[in-house]
Amino acid sequence: MIKPSSLGGLRIVVTRPRDQAAELADALAAHGATPISFPTIKIEAMEDLSDLDTALSRLSSYDWVIFTSVNGVAITWERMQAIGISSRVLARCRIAAIGPATAEALVAHDVEPSFVPQDFVAESLAAGLRKIRGKSILLPRALDARKILPSELRRRGADVEEIAIYRAVAEEDDPQVIEQFRSGIDVITFTSPSIVRNLVAILRAAGLDPLKLPGVPLIACIGPITAGAAYEAGYRQSIIASQYTSQGLVDILLDHYASAESVGYSK
User: Does pTM top 0.85 for this prediction?
Assistant: First the structure.
């Protein structure tokens, strides 16, 4: 399919955390869209990271260290620096990363992942790790992360040390953006289940029905897990990126509007 060179001034809400939104917003703007920044969550490190510090002090005892987000990489590195552990220590471990963004965050710290699944979801990550029975795995991740990954690893005989090192908390709403929702926007992008839940809560608190917004915005999800959360929230139709990245979201939007143009409608 030939993609259009422009998203034609579409008003597209970017709901990612403020410090992670630039890549998607810039890519949308490069195709002519008007990105509207509306972060619904922010990432906070857990107050007590002593369990992480203990695990990092004995990194050599783990057969695998698994990172499931850029946030997990960033917070782990902050603690490594705080307690004086060199990146070279982690580089000697076998590292798995859930997707390219997480892998790139590791490479930025001179750590090359040993494994990155082709599908950037927990199920594929668990399935891709071979011969893990009896192996020790460190899994630093979000407080409210899905349980499928550690459950599947344990089912296959691994000894998993799961440590909650950060959590997603609700951002304050932006009255100016709320007014844009009232006047009608074209697309809402979702990149995680927690973002879906928090946007719904914010809109309801502002007196809006998130399922009956002016303009009937298109819902675009970064992957099937996020799309599932959107469905549970009441969004019965959404488009889903085939590559679970910011660029994947842009590509699915280009494909969608190219198809819409070919049959004479805009959504």
Answer: no
Residue-wise pLDDT tens digits, 208-229: 999 999 999 999 999 998 999 9
Give the C-alpha separation, 261 to 254, whole Å: 11
Q: What angle do CA 109, 247, 166 make, to 5 degrees?
A: 50
Query: Distance between CA atoms of 152 and 164, rounded to whole angstroms?
Result: 18
Per-residue pLDDT reduced to its tens digit, 79-120? 999 999 988 888 888 999 988 889 999 999 999 999 988 776
CATH 3.40.50.10090 given to domain 11-40+171-263:
yes
Q: How far is CA 116 from CA 151, 189, 209, in A?
A: 19, 25, 39
CB-based contact 125:98 (threshold 8 Å): yes
Q: Which CATH number is associated with domain 44-169?
A: 3.40.50.10090
Distance CA 176, CA 39 (A): 13
Integer Cα distance of 220 and 16 in angstroms:
13
Domain boundaries, the chain: 11-40+171-263, 44-169
DSSP per-residue codes, 154-206: HHTT-EEEEEEEEEEEEPPP-HHHHHHHHH--SEEEE-SHHHHHHHHHHHHHT
Pairing of strands 11-14, 239-240: unpaired
Strands of the sheet containing 159-170, edge to edge, are 41-45, 159-170, 136-142, 64-67, 94-97
